[in-house]
Amino acid sequence: MSSLQVGYTPPMSTPARRSVLKLLATAFALPLLCASAHAQDWAKTRLEASPRHHEYATLKHGDRTLQAFVVYPEVKQKATVVVLIHEIFGLSDWAKEMADELAGEGYIVIAPDLLSGGSGPNASGTPSYPDQDAVVKAVSGLDPAQVTADLDAAADYGKKLPAANGKTAVAGFCWGGGKSFAFATHRHDLSAAFVFYGPPPPDVTSITAPVYGFYAGNDARIGATVPSTITEMKAAGKKYEVATYDGAGHGFMRAGEDPAATDANKKAREQALAKMLSVLKQVSTMPMAKLGAPANSSKGQAKNTADAAPMCHDMKDMHAGSL
């Protein structure tokens, strides 16, 4: 005679169990995918509310053509140009919103989509990739020489704008921060280079512009490169001002703007942006010949709280030219 145990459920067959596990995995994954897809909705909303003029410019060099997002300030006088280099996430809504924010402070900002200009289904750049993983993979595989040529095209374009005052700065974030530092070794008419938590180039001796580095206290991967870079820049007679923000995580310029930002990331972003704007103001009024001085280091005052913003990439080679 058979009996039924109360609270007992007979084990599922292996195929049935796999089906249930698959359904559960999908159920848990969907919210995460949605969260990832809409993680920058706040940036897109702010961008759409901007009163400033946005346009896409076509940049050409050699047989290559790429697109750049350009934002103009609402000012009477001619403005300094800032070439903005996106993160490893491509020309995202946040990168464009960051460009708009800088334009709101009185600067012409040119943000090239370094994934545009190719051939095939992804020729139109960042928006043509199916997901963030594909973008990260594509940016990671960009040829450093091509990136430099693309940035040259962006800087050249800015120099020719009637609304520009002839001065150019470069700013990059994470992967783009490394490219900003590397671009300063190549381009000798830059008024300033801003490096946000990016790695240094292998050789700094050819740099002519002052370099301003902004780093997170909770980012040992990049922070470990700073002391030796200070030494190298000082030995080469280059200006390298460093600020490290205690408690902030890698990517704090983006993470600190998120409505869910930690206090440390928010404070780091505010202080770093204030420093950047102060330098840009000096750049806009100072003669080119006076832009330069010995290296030095400063320490940010952000609260020392544990925080780990999402990493831009998992870089094995710390030089700016590679991942």
From TrEMBL:
Spans traversing the lipid bilayer: none
Protein name, UniProt field: Dienelactone hydrolase family
Pfam families attached to this UniProt entry: DLH
Origin species: Granulicella sibirica
Keywords on record: Hydrolase, Signal
Domain of life: Bacteria
Key word Mitochondrion present: no
Dienelactone hydrolase domain: residues covered: 67-283
Signal peptide feature range: 1-39
Keyword Hydrolase attributed: yes
InterPro entries membership: AB_hydrolase_fold, Dienelactn_hydro, Dienelactone_hydrolase-like
Coiled coil feature spans: none
GO molecular function: hydrolase activity
